[in-house]
Amino acid sequence: xxxxxxxxxxxxxxxxxxxxxxxxxxxxxxxxxxxxxxxxxxxxxxxxxxxxxxxxxxxxxxxxxxxxxxxxxxxxxxxxxxxxxxxxxxxxxxxxxxxxxxxxxxxxxxxxxxxxxxxxxxxxxxxxxxxxxxxxxxxxxxxxxxxxxxxxxxxxxxxxxxxxxx
Length: 166
Hints:
This protein is of the alpha+beta class. The protein has one domain. Helices cover 48% and strands 26% of the residues. It has 4 helices and 7 strands; from the N terminus they run βααββββαββα. It has helices spanning 21-45, 48-70, 110-115, 140-165, and strands at 14-18, 72-75, 79-84, 92-97, 101-107, 117-124, 132-138. Strands 1-2-3-4 form a 4-stranded antiparallel β-sheet. A 3-stranded antiparallel β-sheet has the order 5-6-7. A hairpin with a 7-residue loop joins strand 3 (79-84) and strand 4. The radius of gyration is 21 Å and the shape is elongated. The mean pLDDT is 84.
């Protein structure tokens, strides 16, 4: 049986959070005003140039929505990871290994409580520049609790393995 770095069977991948509806709403409101204004200009002028510009802005809006949909916070036996990207050359994964994770926290305020849309921060033990900050994540409070729970479990396994070897 394949084992992870802790000498245990591998963890299944667990998806913890995705972008919340508030992120989609903010993107739609921001682009919506611009698209309505451009649409009115297209109807008023009936120009091919303005139609092409409107089509480009619509394509950018669709890309922005697809990009929001691509964000996924997940964990496995190695650490906590963020996957994102729509286009093949922009897809990627970044994260923090369990041994390098200091803590996961979420920032709470009235709007995050009301909208259930949280900002998640994954703190790195050794450097502030490697911290991960994710805005407008659904179930961010539950995701942070789960990450910290698994982090303690992983640290317990490392300490147990170290005590056993020593």
